[in-house]
């Protein structure tokens, strides 16, 4: 799934090395899973009783219209847990050289965001988290000032560290259907509001635990025998 190839460096060329900071993985959600997840979401939306049973608004940070968790049987049936497990295995192996033997899904949930709604800076429980996109408005709106170079409308921003020379503490991703990003649970992140659209920005997230021995990097040293 991941490639780790380096071309031979030639005189006059430069290779940018970024060995510091948490590793983030970018994977693609298969089209059949996108369809299954969207169909499931649409059914929940149209079933007020079920939507209330699965509601996660009380425990999540989002200032959005609706957030609800996925039922475990459904996740297993369509292969959603397997997709996340395989992506996590490749990501952790690529980043650490270690093979996980545990993948414990804590929860996975849908976020339905509409015009002028947002997700404030927050982090997640567990060891690892991720977010992917199931529906995106055709337009996320233009900057209020035409002179603005950047337009973060509807984007997710991951935050880590401080702004210092040669180090940037944030990275933004423009949402695209099928894109999925894996990151450590402690990584702070936020989602900006969008404008000038009545369409839905629909995302899916999850929290999970892996091997404590891999996650707890300071707890694995063996003391020398006396």
**Poorly predicted parts:** none
CATH class: Mainly Beta
CATH fold descriptor: Jelly Rolls
Ends: how far apart? 44 Å
What is the structural class? alpha+beta
Mean pLDDT: 92
- Supply the number of helical segments: 5
Largest sheet, described in full?
6 strands, antiparallel
CATH architecture classification name: Sandwich
- Shape by Cα distribution: globular
What are the secondary-structure elements, in order, as H or E?
Answer: EHHEHHEEEEEEEEH
Rg of Cα set: 19 Å
| Beta-strand percentage range | 25-35%
Strand order of the largest sheet: 1-8-5-10-3-2
CATH homologous superfamily annotation: q2cbj1_9rhob like domain
Question: Helical residue percent?
Answer: 10-25%
Number of strands: 10
Tally of structural domains: 1
Description:
This protein has a single domain, classed as q2cbj1_9rhob like domain (Jelly Rolls, Sandwich), CATH 2.60.120. It is built from five helices and ten strands. The strands form two sheets. It has a six-stranded antiparallel β-sheet. It is globular. The model has no long low-confidence stretch (mean pLDDT 92).
């Amino acid at each position: 799934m991941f490639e780790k190839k380096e071309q031979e460096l030639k005189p006059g060329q430069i290779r940018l090395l970024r060995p510091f900071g948490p590793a983030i993985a970018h994977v693609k959600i298969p089209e059949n899973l996108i369809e299954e997840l969207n169909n499931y979401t649409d059914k929940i939306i149209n079933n007020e009783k079920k939507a209330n049973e699965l509601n996660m608004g009380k425990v999540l940070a989002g200032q959005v219209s609706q957030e609800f968790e996925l039922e475990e049987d459904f996740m297993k049936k369509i292969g959603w847990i397997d997709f996340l497990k395989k992506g996590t295995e490749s990501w952790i192996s690529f980043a650490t050289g270690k093979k996980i033997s545990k993948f414990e899904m804590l929860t996975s949930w849908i976020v339905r965001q509409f015009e002028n709604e947002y997700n404030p800076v927050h982090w997640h429980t567990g060891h690892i988290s991720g977010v992917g996109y199931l529906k995106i408005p055709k337009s996320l709106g233009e900057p209020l000032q035409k002179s603005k170079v950047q337009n973060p409308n509807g984007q997710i921003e991951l935050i880590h560290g401080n702004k210092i020379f040669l180090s940037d503490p944030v990275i933004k991703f423009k949402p695209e259907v099928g894109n999925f990003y894996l990151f450590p649970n402690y990584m702070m992140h936020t989602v900006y509001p969008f404008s000038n659209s009545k369409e839905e920005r629909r995302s899916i997230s999850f929290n999970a635990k892996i091997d404590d021995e891999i996650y707890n990097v300071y707890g694995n040293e063996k003391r020398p025998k006396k």
